[in-house]
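Notebook entry, structure prediction.
Reason for the run: the old model in the group folder had no record of what sequence produced it. Starting over properly, with the input documented here first.
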Amino acid sequence: MNNCEKSISDLVAVISKFKPGRQLKKYIGHARFPNFKGLENDALIEFDFPFTAVVGANGSGKSSILHALYGMPEGESTAVYWFSTDLDPIEAKKRNPPRYIYAHWHDEYNNYVETRKARVYSQKREYEYWEPTKATKGDNMGELPEKEYPRKDKDRWNPVERQVVNLNMRSVVGAFDRAFSYGLPLSDLTKKHEEMKAGAKKIKRVLRDDVQSWKLGGGPERVFENRDLSDEEVEWVSQILGRKYDSATYIKHSLYSGQKSEDISVVFSRGIEYSEAFAGSGEVSVVEIVVRLLEAADYALVLIDEPETSLHPGAQRELLRFILEQIKRKKTQVVVSTHSIEFLTGLPESAIKVVDVKQDGKSCILNQCSPYVALNRLGKSNGRKIVYVEDPMAKIIVDHAIMTLDPGEVEACEVSVAPGGADEILCRQIPGHILSGHDCYVLLDGDKKKVDAFTNPVSVPEDKQGELGEVILQEVGVNPKFSLSGGDDPAGTRRERIGNQKDYLLWVEKRLKYLPFICPEAFLLEKVYGISRVEIPNSQAAKRMLRDRLPKTLTAGDEIGAVKMLLDNVDLGDKDFLNIRAVIQAWLGFV
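New structure, fully documented this time:
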């Protein structure tokens, strides 16, 4: 384990012990969405760890969750990001307005309290806004205590008071790049170059003369910040990007012609001096994150949309380490949306939330997921049924077996490797597929098979349903991990667990099958090398026996190629191939 990975592991261990009301002040514990954008009604996201990674496909609602979080604290409004237009109107409703409810820790009350914010629109106002409203029983909000507490009114808990640091890394662009891309058209290149040179001359003067304010022609301010990065900032930027910077100057301005936003110029020095015009976009984004997080107040709420933008994997891991270090130091709460495995690996599963679009178009939230499962869910193919297998070797054999199917049948099916192995698939992935309604199937190696048929839970008497967990363990071989609502209702939790166990047994009965051999290696040993199945005691022995027969110099990639060549020696009419094709065709509904 290198230094970065060890640091991440150590930081996760420390932060895991942080508790609301102790280290974590004014912490947001969960948010509920009775009616909010594309999320399903009453969707719930829980913040069980100070760093939360929200994963989902484009358009699933990740950014919507960040926009809601942005508007939760006192003085902030979700209307900054979500407002009604002629193209995308928001229907004004009194009985069921767009709204969310969130729990935040109240020190004096020594518990979480819930605040409700709803979208309010009035023709008397020229704007729309989100305001805290009274607690409502219809949204399952509890009674307010009679005792007086700070931030409590007669009918509501007022919003939490916290600083919000909001960063959308897709929109963090160096001033040069934005002016060049959005200024004069490229067809007038001479004028564009003149425009850029004029802006650069102004920035050079700001640097040379340490200009802190510039109002062109008596107009609005054009220089908003101009300073050298501190030693700590330079050190973190160097560590994240993996190169040594001697110094850097940070300028926030709108000095290019036609520039209206407060964009960033950074002049780096590392043996040579250069501006963001020659720097990579990743350098600018890392500087912005480092600057904003180091200046953030203790206990701030930090929101980062796609922090991986323009960063290579090593820099992403170092950035994760930096963010976790700030949580440790400042007890901040950080929520990021991401598509990157680098921001998930090493986190507790309770820190990873998956936003998944269901068949009805609404998005549900899975509150616990492993990194590989979370990202694997993003690869779902529209209109195609996915068959998950354990490893690349199994995929090669299944793909080969179905190659003789009708082209339409082949097109309707996608064989995909589910990272993590069989136990990960059975224990964690299948409960996730059930929750999201993901139309998929699982074909595992034969050595995982324990029974010829799974118990139908409908046939289990009510007084025996408490034993369904044992049934699953005996027939499938795992204790599945279900996401339960929690709370102080043991009877309700038991009913929910039994319901999940029933759903699990029904799912595996229809969607889980096994290959007709203990493992792909055993199949090849029998079909290619003529070794009887009774001579192969288990899958580990089969893997070893196949490796002994392949050239020693083969790499992992070469080995896959060698296996494909070996399969050419197996008759496509082989009974095991026929068995696999029959299973796939049944799932596709063609038999």
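Summary: The chain has a mean pLDDT of 88.
The old model has been moved to the deprecated folder.
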